[in-house]
Amino acid sequence: MPVHPMAAELLELLQIPSPTGLTEAALDWTERKLGALGVPYRRTRKGALLWSLAGDRPALTFSAHVDTLGAMVKEILPSGRLRLSPIGGYDWASIEGEYATVHLQDGGRVSATVLNQKQSTHIFGPELRELRRSADTMELRLDADTRSAEQTRELGIGVGDFVSWDSRATLAGEGYIKGRHLDDKAGVIALLAATAALKDRPAPGRHAAHFFLSNYEEVGHGAARGIPEDTDTLIAVDMAAVGPGQTSDEHCVSICLKDAGGPYDHAASQRIRAVAAEEAIDLRCDLYTYYSSDATAAWRSGGDFAAALIGPGVDASHSYERTHQDALIATARLIGAIIERF
Ligand SMILES: [Zn+2]
Known about the structure:
The protein is an alpha+beta fold. The chain has 2 domains: about 5-70 and about 180-340, Aminopeptidase; about 70-165, Beta Barrel (Elongation Factor Tu (Ef-tu), domain 3). The chain has 9 helices and 19 strands. The protein has helices spanning about 5-15, 25-35, 120-125, 125-130, 150-155, 180-200, 265-280, 295-300, 325-340; strands at about 40-45, 50-55, 55-65, 70-75, 80-85, 100-105, 110-115, 140, 160-165, 170, 175-180, 205-215, 230-235, 240, 255-260, 260-265, 285, 305-315, 320-325. The strands form 3 sheets. Strands 1, 2, 3, 12, 13, 14, 15, 16, 17 and 18 form a 10-stranded mixed beta sheet that branches. Strands 5-4-9-6-7-8 form a 6-stranded antiparallel beta sheet. Strands 10-11-19 form a 3-stranded antiparallel beta sheet. Strand 4 and strand 5 form a beta hairpin. It is globular and about 65 Å long. The chain starts with a helix and ends with a helix. The model has no long low-confidence stretch (mean pLDDT about 95). Bound molecules: zinc ion. Zinc ion binds near residues 65, 217 and 238.
């Protein structure tokens, strides 16, 4: 199966670390892509990236988020290793053994690995198996000569430095993309692909569309401000949770009808389902129990518009994730179809 350009572009974006709070490089990359498409863009004061396509029907805003899970240096331990404070919601066990990068104040980087305090089975034996993984038992081992807090400080590392997880993004099998942070870089790529597909098509008869790239979604307030005033419906494009009991699939786009924030707008969701049916897009319907989106963040902060949530199926979310290029293609197609027929 040939590699779809969207999959290749996603791999590129996944190489750029962007934990919440340190998203400039990923936003710069996106701006360069928009520049190459000849699409003008602007930034909100909070740093979110916005661009638009003309249309003469009520404006739809599609959001995706460029920020990802990560951590911040909480404390330099006497051993020279680092204690971490998490950025975003994840289980510590899901990052055990992961390669990481510490981003220094001066722009330098130090590579590292996430370990627990009793990682060697030869030394700790049963204690390792019984260890509860938590902020107090996980630590970062630096790839540098340090055995004391003083030596670590001499490396230029300080409390508050950002830590990113290596995405380890790779193409696998027939059209799969696996790696960390498909949530929500897969959504970002779908927004770019829909923009590229529609930018030269005639605007009359279709909806005006805004695209909002959020930089604080993983901490819950990304789209709390900055959604354009004329927005009639906000459609968050974020990963669909794949797993037992779900209809979502790595090959498909999904619509979420209810998550931890409650039900999404019924009429908007119904229209999206109708558009998908007209276009013969296999749209899966699901509820996500432990999930909330930028659409909910926008509603909670008083957004006066309808809101819905769609996105590509992602397996093992907030861990070492996987999706298929079919899901990227379906998501971009659905966005385009919504703009033209919603
Ligand atoms: Zn997300």
